[in-house]
Structure formats: structure tokens, C-alpha cells
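2024-03-11 09:14:02 DEBUG pipeline.ingest accepted 1 chain
2024-03-11 09:14:02 DEBUG pipeline.ingest length=194
2024-03-11 09:14:03 DEBUG pipeline.predict start
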Amino acid sequence: MILGITGGMGCGKSTAAGLFEGRGFRRLDSDALIRDEVLTRPEVKRRLQDRFGPEVLRADGTVDRTRVAQRVFTDESELRWLEDLVHPPLYEIWREKFAADPAAQWAVEVPLLFEKNLENWFDFTVCVACAPAQQLARLEQRGLPHALAEQRISKQLPLARKIELADFVLWNEGTAEFLQDQVDQLLHALPGVR
């Protein structure tokens, strides 16, 4: 079984994925895979540097994700270019992981699951949601300025649409125990969960 976990920024995708992991699922964080495995590839770094200039690489040779974000979140065409660069290698990593352990149950965090029409990768899709005010408050607690948080949220499909498209919804506005109870109820309802 492969679950695709999505939702808005700050809604708790990672928290929910961690709860699935605690129930025996293997967890894949797409953002972490891009950061740790895709953006470290020499060809990807070279293409980023060719596109955005030498300042996108730090002195130690790693990609300065903040500088890249400043470029792509203000220009839709640059964002599309970046996604076209990093998504194919991400999907290849998914393929390799799934093939290496086909009997595993997977919980995959995918922020742009519906935006990129990735539903067919997953047996079921799960949207983690909360009220917009809660979402913004969480992002600000992480140090993201209010205006920047709103800008990044605006680049994603509206949360209400993700809720409509998802097979299941987890409402993450209560306690950690409340979210855990929802995950447990969902696991009892899913066919084939061990």
C-alpha cells in the first residue's frame, strides 16, 4: 500500500506522515529527498548555477535554497523550470524505493500531489488540513514572514480543492492525540493495511 499525503503548507503533512511511520509505514518526505538527493547532484547544481548565477551555490558547494526560492516564488515561469528540473529525479527515487521493498507500506509526503496530477502513483490520497488562520500562524512560528507565507500558499492548489480531491482528510487543528486517533481510524478503514 502506498499513501500519498498532501495538504497546505503548515497543515501538518510531516506530523501526519510521522504518525503513519509510527504505525509501521515506511516514510518518504519528498521535500527532503529533493534537498538531500536531488539538489546534491552535480548536473542539477550546474543547471541551477547556469540559470540563476553563482550566488545560488554556497561556499561549500551546496545549493542555497533560500536564494533559489526568492527567484522562483516571484516568477511563475522560473518555478515551472525548477519543478521540471527536480521532479523527474524525485519520481525516479520513488520508483527505486518502491521497487526495493514492494511489500512495504509507504507514506509519501507530496506537497504538490494534485497540482502535478500524481494521484496514480498512490493507492489512496490523504489531505492534512486546518483552518487558514492556523496554517498562517504555524508558518509564522517557523519564521516565515506573513506576506511570504501567503505568497507561497498562493502557489499551491487551494486547500478546499485538495480536500475535495483527496480520498481521506485528516483535520489537524486539535491535539496530537486527536490527530493520532484520526490516523488510527483511517488505518482501520483502509483495505489491506497490516
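2024-03-11 09:14:41 DEBUG pipeline.report The chain has two domains: 1-25+107-187, 34-104.
2024-03-11 09:14:41 DEBUG pipeline.predict end
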